Give the backbone structure.
Amino acid sequence: MTVPRPVPTTVCHFTHIDHLATIVEHGLLSDTDAQGGGHLTVEAGNPSIKEQRRRRPVVVEPYGIVADYAPFYFRSRSPMMYAIRHGNVPTFTGDCHDLIYLITTIEILHQHGLPMVFTDRNAALAHSKHSTAIDDLDDLVDWAVMYLDYWRNTEEDPDRKERRMAECLVHQRVPWDAIDGIAVYDDARRDTVESVLANLEVTAPPIHVTPKAYF
C-alpha cells in the first residue's frame, strides 16, 4: 500500500543531552565539523558506520562525503537507536534515555536556505540513492516503512531495515533557530533541557516528553 508523504515533513536528529549547549552556540554540525572543532564529547554513533560515512561520496550537489552533512531521520525509533539501546554501539556506555531528539521539518530547513540531500536508505551504503529535490521525497522514501513500529527485515522484504534509515542530510551546519522542537524520554530530561536553555538565555522550542520515541 502506498502511503503519502506527510506535509510538513518532520525530520529528527538524536544526540546526547550533554551536547545541547554546544549545539545552541554553534549549530548542529556535521561529523566532520564537530570532530574538527572538538565539539563531540559523547559518541553515540557506531564507529564502523561513521568510518564508512567518512569515505562515502555524495553524488549530488553540494557533493563531498556523507560525514560533511548533519543527518536527520524521518522517524524516531531508528535501527541506530535500537542498536544503542541493546549495547551494540561500543563507544556509547551511558543511558540511551539521555539521548534527545532535535526536531524540524524539511520546509523549515528549506526556508533557511540550507542545502539538503535526501537518501532512500542508510546514506553509508554505496547503493543508496541521492536527490536534492523535495518533490522526490514522495517516492524516494518508503513512507509505509516509516510508520512501522517494527522494521526488521523479513524473507519477503529483505532490505526493510535499510529503507527505515532513509536520511535528510544537511550540508555542514543547521543553525539553532532552524530547530522547531525537542523530544525527550521523561520529565527529568525535560527539566534538564529547560534548565540548559534558560541558562543560555535562549527561547526554548516546544519540548515533548515522548517515551514512545525510545526503545
About this structure: The two ends are 26 Å apart (CA to CA). Strands lie at 10-16, 28-29, 69-73, 99-105, 116-119, 130-131, 167-171, 173-174, 181-184, 207-209. The first strand starts at residue 10 and ends at 16.
